[in-house]
Design a protein that fits this description.
About 40% of the residues lie in helices and about 20% in strands. With about 250 residues, the protein is α/β, with parallel strands linked by helices. Strand 8, helix 8 and strand 9 form a beta-alpha-beta unit. Helix 3 runs parallel beside helix 4 and helix 7 runs parallel beside helix 8. It is elongated, with a radius of gyration of 19 Å. The two termini are about 20 Å apart.
């Protein structure tokens, strides 16, 4: 039986240190993973985290919003406060916590702030001290909603997302020759960086290549930028690869 992604070259734009699992999943399906990180992650210096870490010692709950938050947050924290309730946005974040030896985090069915806020454990939080572990910047919805529900909320912004410096010429040459069949992006910021890194020469290539994102909001953001072939898939590596397989199968069946 032919592997479902046989003959397909998939552009992987994740940070270099987080690409391995998706690369493996693509290869397991018979595809070729082409690495071009469009996002890099750097730790915030420890000296800038001292106030947040001091407040965190008495926290009732910690919310890790991404695998990066798990990795860089635990590096800064050391270990969560005893008795603090832990939350992870998405199975990837929970997996990153578990790999660091931290288990028992509650995970919502969805992979965004809205899904987390729907958990009954966060419905009644009056008087609770909650720390949101995340990167610098981001959506305020989670903190605003928990504050409105009566919680005292602080951020531990432990990493910073930056645009990598890379020469796109080899990738563009391959792409122009028909050597890229699909693009994957995991965030709107990654997509914005990719567009900037590819420049004008890459715009028509992105516009005509199917782009797969593990969330409807990211796909909608891509379409708003003129990328009509943006497809939302289920979350996680398995969902992303399954979404690609289904899409390519549908094109073959036409």
């Amino acid at each position: 039986m032919t592997a479902p992604l046989a003959g397909r070259a998939v552009l992987v734009t994740r940070p270099a240190h987080q690409a391995a699992s998706l690369v493996q999943a693509i290869r397991a399906a018979g595809g070729e993973a082409v690495l071009f990180p469009a996002l890099a992650v750097k730790a915030v210096p420890a000296a800038q985290l001292q106030a947040a870490l001091a407040w965190l010692r008495d926290a009732d709950a910690l919310i890790f919003i991404s695998p990066n938050a798990a990795q860089f947050g635990l590096a800064a924290i050391g270990a969560p406060p005893p008795g603090a309730q832990l939350f992870a946005v998405g199975p990837g974040t929970a997996r990153a916590l578990a790999e660091a030896g931290v288990t028992g985090a509650l995970v919502p069915d969805g992979q965004d702030s809205e899904a987390l806020l729907a958990l009954p454990q966060l419905a009644h939080v009056t008087g609770r001290r909650i720390v949101i572990v995340r990167g610098v910047g981001g959506r305020p919805l989670l903190a605003d909603t928990l504050t409105a529900r009566g919680a005292a909320v602080r951020y531990l912004e432990c990493y910073r997302r930056v645009r990598p410096v890379a020469d796109p010429a080899p990738l563009l040459a391959r792409w122009l020759a028909g050597g890229i069949d699909a693009v994957t992006v995991a965030s709107a910021e990654t997509l914005a960086n990719l567009i900037a890194m590819l420049g004008e020469a890459g715009a028509p290539l992105l516009a005509t290549t199917p782009l797969f994102a593990p969330h409807a909001k990211i796909a909608a953001s891509a379409r708003s930028l003129g990328l009509a072939h943006a497809i939302a898939t289920p979350g996680g590596d398995a969902g992303l690869v399954d979404g690609m397989i289904r899409w390519f199968n549908a094109q073959t069946d036409r």
